[in-house]
Design a protein that fits this description.
The complex is a heterotrimer of chains A (about 425), B (about 350) and C (about 425).
Chain A (H helix, E strand, L loop, with lengths): L15 H4 L1 H34 L29 H34 L4 H15 L3 H15 L16 H4 L2 E3 L2 E4 L1 E4 L6 E3 L3 E3 L1 H31 L6 H19 L1 E4 L2 E3 L2 E3 L2 E4 H28 L2 H9 L4 H31 L11 H13 L2 H30 L5
Helix pairs in contact in A: 3-4, 3-9, 3-12, 4-9, 5-9, 7-8, 9-11, 10-11, 11-13, 12-13
Chain B lengths: L1 H16 L6 H8 L2 E6 L7 E2 L5 E2 L1 H14 L5 E6 L4 H6 L5 E7 L2 H5 L3 E3 L4 E3 L1 E6 L13 E6 L4 H11 L4 E6 L2 H9 L5 E5 H9 L7 E3 L7 E8 L3 H20 L6 H6 L5 H7 L5 H5 L5 H9 L2 H8 L29
Helix pairs in contact in B: 3-9, 3-13, 9-13
Chain C lengths: L1 H7 L19 H9 L4 H25 L9 H8 L8 H12 L8 H18 L9 H16 L1 E2 L1 H21 L4 H30 L3 E2 L9 H27 L4 H16 L2 H15 L8 H27 L2 H9 L4 H31 L11 H10 L8 H30 L4
Antiparallel strand pairs in C: 1-2
Classes of the chains: A mainly alpha (about 425), B alpha/beta (about 350), C mainly alpha (about 425).
């Protein structure tokens, strides 16, 4: 009987780094690391050398210099004496604003169109197909430029509202002015409002809105509590008490009371001097960008939604019907949850695309972060390296946050596989 | 493998393109072409025609330098640049000179490390309004919506002007002149502000130019001129004196029509002789041939001819000489002596 | 039973009734319309509303489009021809047609980009139209990049030949070295050999070769590229180069080596996380700073590099999808045959993964092609950039819709046909499943 001998005790040989699979992976990784570090080092070395030749010192000190230029749409207070840093921040907020607005509209329009494409009405289905194909196959930059042109050319200018027999009048009972500079809608005002609360040096927080929001949220929570109590009663006694009037009241009455105490009223836009004054002003650049991005992305969303609905097999619908579910419940309990799983991942990447495409705002002069930090600030200071890298960092952060949040949601709706 | 191929090919391309060394003149001569940065399209100053030939006031300066250095006004590669890319293109050596209505400021000279070789057009920022608005002075523009072209000093001047006069305004930043014109005509802004020359040339192309007025206030000084990199004074001298030669030629009555005749033999006027190389060795001092100025002038004529044929009163742009008349006619255009 | 039946029923039909035609309202045009357009009041309203919308749109657009201004040579002339009527001014398209297609490419050399495009379609034939084109011309597809580049840029023929020889040298070294060392190291050696060839031998030999055997085309500067030709050149180059990079990145992302994996993930997520326009800013303002002092190549090449990097991140994700779609059995089968990693990839995995990725690759191409319009923002004369330059010409100052509609229409035709093609492919590839 041959006894099993111990495997020959291995002494480490240099050749094992290449021929032994256990070590080879380490060898390759070390090589990769060395190559990568060399590449990075090479790039940094070149950059330093080139900047030295140009006599420039990389530094972010310019961000604290006064910017010197004005921005039309500012979500936080800003004037031309503020720093470049604050100007960049104004730009970031503008980017986020248009991205959020665009994502919401794109989803709504996209779902609507996607469902209509499956409609039994031949004409409607064809129309939606034409919409999807036209918007998908023309560059988004062209849509942005075209939307702007259409707004500017087809809407009346503020001067058309002037005079005794004006060419244009305000819409919605004289509350909304639609002009080719933008749309003026009534603004919310509190005549007996609370003082604004400064948050750091960055911006002022309106306590009025905070209070109103808190009251609204409290009302919704209370209404939820009433519903849960009704559920409990129904479970124990089988009779569900009528609660809808209570639930509406608990939300509305405190809210109306608080708004009255704060002196809530609407401030309507009116023609003053060159422009409309008062009211909330949505600039044309924002509307054009918002419209173009939403319509362009909605075309992709529509395809995603259509594919998602079609991917739920017909057997599921039939089985649900066989269980005696009504059509609405079939949709909400069986089809949609399954379709959603297919829809969400590509939808996330569409949201990301929309956010990134919002950087084309410079084509219509919307002052997002590309327009402020990587636009005017770059032009005025000549700091290409710093501004472009900062701008990329901003977009990267936004993208990573969006995908992280959406992936979290995705992992909650994802099918748990056995 | 292909990845490395790209880098390899690029490095080769880089090597072949030649290092942007200190001696720009040698590079230009070796290349046989002058790389000149211009604007992507500004009527009268630089724009490509249907055949891809560039024309305009700034373009003529490039052609004059190419003629002086290489003897051929066509030996120019025009590199279109935007407000954002122009300085990087010059700093990195992609272009040898920038002739793109660029305002001469201290920070561009000292901080961005460029040398302005002179001024080929004295401009200033103005305002244009529709006449029906009934505005006669820029001081009445409180609350107006103002279209501005971004990427220039314009937005800074505008912010300063309105702040100084304690007025408010709504800026509408726009990338190109063509877009700005469209928005202004549609009434999306009350006022259009840019350099006065730009206003005049824009107004000239309107369907009804008489319905629009340029306000009398000029709110800034905008000396526009060609520029080169710091650190190559020989090249700076060549561009500076080519520009001066064009100016001096107008003052001395040398035109593209008579330059050949005057250069054929030395005449009575010693300054003309020195300029045209029939006397002295000014060309040699610059490192150029003796007849450099003759070639530069015959490329597109003297300063006055270039002005008249590109942006003068006989063109659609229709600019008057104004500040850009010769100093003998009460303008600011003045060339140091050729001696 | 039959008796009772006979008692109660006085008449029994013993032949089948002739089948009747369906009612006239449910066949033909009327029936179709009832079924598809007017089934129920809601659908009827929808139909009427949409029809009204379409008619309104057409009534607005058609009179404007049909406008006898094809031969006008300036906007003023158009206004004279139209004499106050609303109408398009198509003269600008007529006059600048060549420029919109070819940019500033020398007019007498237009045959070169056209030939390059035709050859491109031929070279892609065996890949895209595998049913109709014989795979025998695959070697031609392999050398096409060199032919295409030579046709577009011109210059001496030795540049593309020498560049191609670099690959041959690399391959030779690889085959030779493989006899002595493991494939990984052999590959490294091959890369080094090719690099030496391109960086050391080629720059030395090229000028002499070009002088000794002067065969070549007239050189064209890439600055003269423009219009749709520029868009297509950038798009095709980016896709062509991004394919190998994308494959490597996708393999890297699925690799067992954590370091390689994280480097690839980092690169892909970084590129996908920033907008293309910022990468173009890098190309136009920063790339020269990142490269060795004195390196200087023109903006089109720089843009091509950045767009290639951009496309390769997306390509990597497409190919990763293709790899993930392969059944696990394929990998296990390859392992059981005793193939090593690269052999398995080359012989089993990649051919299948790439085939299922083709629709995705085509969509990526459509995306990149559309995104090339962004280069107009960094002062390049793609169709949109040209539109701005044309509008700066005093003859056409003030023109607007005509150029954009023309450019949009051309983009639509290109992208739409490509997306239809990719859908056809998808259907074709799907037959095996379900």
């Amino acid at each position: 009987m041959a006894t099993l001998t111990d495997p020959p005790s291995e002494s480490f040989k240099l050749s094992m780094l290449i021929y032994d699979t256990r070590y080879r992976s380490i060898t390759f990784q070390v090589i990769a690391l060395i190559l990568f570090l060399t590449l990075i080092g090479w790039l940094i070395n070149n950059t330093v050398q080139n900047l030295q030749d140009l006599g420039k010192e990389p530094s972010f000190g310019f961000m604290n210099q006064p910017a010197g230029y004005d921005i039309n749409q500012t979500l936080i207070p800003y004037n031309s004496q503020d720093t470049h840093l604050r100007a960049a921040f104004v730009g970031i907020l503008n980017t986020l604003l248009v991205a959020v607005m665009g994502c919401i509209t794109a989803t709504v329009v996209g779902v609507f169109v996607g469902v209509l494409r499956l409609s039994g009405n031949w004409l409607v289905a064809r129309l939606m197909t034409v919409y999807v194909e036209i918007f998908r196959n023309v560059p988004v930059l062209m849509w942005i430029v075209l939307c702007m042109a259409i707004l500017i050319e087809s809407l009346p200018s503020p001067s058309d509202f002037r005079g005794d027999d004006p060419e244009a009048t305000m819409s919605f009972f004289d509350t909304v002015a639609i002009t080719n500079r933008g749309v003026y809608v009534p603004a919310v005002e509190f005549s007996r409002g609370l003082p604004a609360l400064p948050v750091g040096n960055a911006f002022d927080l309106s306590l009025n809105f905070v209070v109103a929001l808190l009251v609204l949220l409290g009302g919704i929570w209370a209404s939820g509590a009433i519903r849960r109590r009704a559920d409990a009663i129904q479970n124990s006694t089988g009779v569900r008490p009528r609660t809808w009037h209570l639930r509406v009241g608990v939300i509305l009455i405190p809210l109306i009371a608080v708004l009255t105490i704060l002196g809530f009223n609407l401030q309507y836009p009116e023609l003053k001097g060159f422009n409309f004054g008062g009211g909330l002003y949505m600039r044309n650049s924002l509307i054009a960008l918002w419209l173009a991005l939403s319509l362009y992305t909605a075309a992709f969303v529509a395809e995603i939604v259509r594919a998602g609905i079609m991917a739920v097999s017909h057997g599921q619908t039939e089985a649900a019907a066989a269980l005696g579910l009504r059509p609405r419940r079939v949709m909400s309990l069986v089809v949609l949850p399954q379709a959603l799983r297919i829809i969400i991942p590509p939808l996330i990447s569409q949201y990301l695309n929309l956010t990134k495409n919002s950087s084309l705002a410079i084509a219509v002069g919307y002052m997002d972060v590309t327009g402020t930090l990587m636009g005017i600030t770059l032009n005025q200071t000549g700091r290409e390296l710093e501004t472009v890298l900062l701008g990329m960092l901003v977009y990267l952060t936004i993208s990573l946050i969006i995908s992280a949040v959406m992936n979290l949601y995705n992992s909650r709706v994802a099918l748990v596989e056995r | 493998m292909k990845k490395t191929a790209i880098f390899g090919a690029l490095t080769v391309a880089g090597l072949m393109a030649g290092a942007a060394g200190a001696a720009t003149l040698d590079d230009v001569k070796a290349r046989g072409k002058l790389n000149c940065g211009v604007s992507t399209g500004l009527a009268g100053f630089s724009n490509p025609d249907a055949n891809g030939n560039w024309e305009g006031f700034d373009v003529a300066v490039c052609r004059a330098v190419a003629a002086a250095v290489l003897g051929d006004p066509q030996a120019v590669e025009f590199v279109p640049t935007t407000g954002k890319t122009r300085f990087t293109a010059l700093a990195s050596g992609e272009i040898d000179m920038l002739a793109r209505n660029t305002t001469w400021t201290l920070s561009r000279d000292a901080d961005l490390k460029f040398t302005f070789v002179g001024v080929n057009y004295y401009d200033g920022q103005g305002f244009m309004v529709p006449k029906e608005l009934g505005v006669s002075s820029a001081k009445e523009l409180d609350g107006a919506t103002v279209c501005i072209q971004t990427g220039t000093t314009t937005e800074l001047n505008l912010a300063d002007f309105f702040r100084k006069n304690n007025m408010s305004y709504e800026p509408v930043p726009i990338e190109t002149n063509a877009e700005a014109q469209q928005q202004y005509l549609a009434g999306a802004c009350d006022v259009y502000t840019t350099d006065a020359s730009g206003l005049a040339s824009t107004r000239a192309t309107f369907e009804d130019p008489s319905a629009h007025a340029v306000l009398p206030e000029i709110i800034s000084k905008e000396p526009l001129g060609p520029l080169v990199r710091h650190g190559d004074d020989e090249w700076g001298d060549i561009t500076r004196w080519t520009l001066n030669a064009l100016v001096a030629a107008e003052e001395l009555g040398i035109t593209s029509a008579n330059v050949a005749e005057m250069a054929a033999s030395a005449g009575d006027n010693p300054e003309i002789n020195r300029l045209l190389g029939t006397e002295g060795n000014l060309g040699e001092m610059l490192g150029l041939e003796a007849d450099w100025a003759v070639k530069a002038i015959s490329a597109g004529g003297n300063y006055g001819e270039i002005f008249e044929s590109n942006i003068g009163e006989s063109t659609p742009i229709g600019l008057a000489r104004g500040l850009n008349a010769q100093w003998t006619d009460g303008g600011l255009i003045y060339s140091p002596p050729f001696r | 039973m039959s008796n009772t039946h006979a008692d109660t029923v006085s008449y029994v039909r013993d032949t089948m009734l002739m089948q009747q035609d369906p009612p006239s309202t449910s066949v033909g045009v009327v029936g179709w319309a009832r079924g598809n357009l007017f089934s129920g009041w809601f659908n009827t309203i929808l139909t009427i509303l949409s029809a009204a919308f379409v008619l309104w749109l057409l009534a607005g657009i058609v009179p404007w489009v049909v406008s006898p201004t094809w031969n006008a040579s300036s906007l003023t002339e158009c206004r004279e021809i139209l004499a106050g009527h609303e109408g398009a001014c198509w003269g600008v398209i007529h006059e600048r047609w060549n420029q919109l297609l070819f940019g500033f490419y020398p007019q007498e050399l237009y045959w070169r980009p056209v030939l390059a495009l035709v050859l491109l379609l031929i070279a892609l034939g065996p890949i895209l139209f595998a049913d109709f084109v014989s795979p025998k011309i695959l070697p031609f597809s392999a050398v096409y990049p060199f032919i295409g580049a030579w046709l577009l840029w011109g210059g001496t023929i030795w540049t593309p030949v020498m560049a191609a020889l670099g690959f041959v040298v690399g391959y030779g070294v690889f085959v030779l070295a493989q006899r002595f060392i493991v494939p990984g190291l052999a590959f490294l050696a091959a890369v080094l050999a090719a690099l030496v060839w391109w960086l050391v031998i080629m720059p030395f030999a090229l000028p002499d070769l070009a002088r000794l055997i002067p065969i070549g085309l007239e050189a064209v500067q890439s600055r003269q590229f423009g219009g749709f030709m520029l868009s297509i050149t950038i798009g095709v180059t980016a896709i062509l180069f991004s394919l190998p990079i994308g494959i490597l990145l996708a393999l890297g992302r699925r690799s067992d080596l954590p370091l390689v994996k994280w480097l690839c993930v980092g690169f892909i997520e970084f590129i996908r996380g920033v907008p293309l326009i910022t990468l173009l800013f890098v190309a136009s303002t920063l790339l020269n700073i990142f490269l060795p002092p004195g390196t200087n190549f023109d903006i089109i090449l720089r843009v091509m590099i950045m767009v290639t990097l951009f496309a390769s991140a997306y390509m990597a994700e497409v190919i990763r999808g293709g790899l993930a779609a392969l059944p696990k059995g394929q990998y296990e089968g390859a392992d059981s045959l005793g193939l090593d990693y690269w052999q398995a990839q080359r012989l089993i995995i990649m051919p299948q993964a790439l085939k299922i990725s083709i629709p995705g690759i085509v969509s990526t191409f459509i995306g990149v092609f559309k995104d090339t319009t962004l280069v107009s923002i960094i002062s390049m004369f793609d169709p949109l950039g040209l539109a701005n330059a044309i509008r700066a010409d005093s003859a056409w100052n003030g023109i607007y819709w005509e150029l954009f509609i023309f450019i949009g229409a051309v983009f639509f035709i290109f992208c739409f046909s490509m997306s239809r093609y990719s859908m056809y492919l998808e259907r074709k590839l799907q037959t095996g499943h379900r």
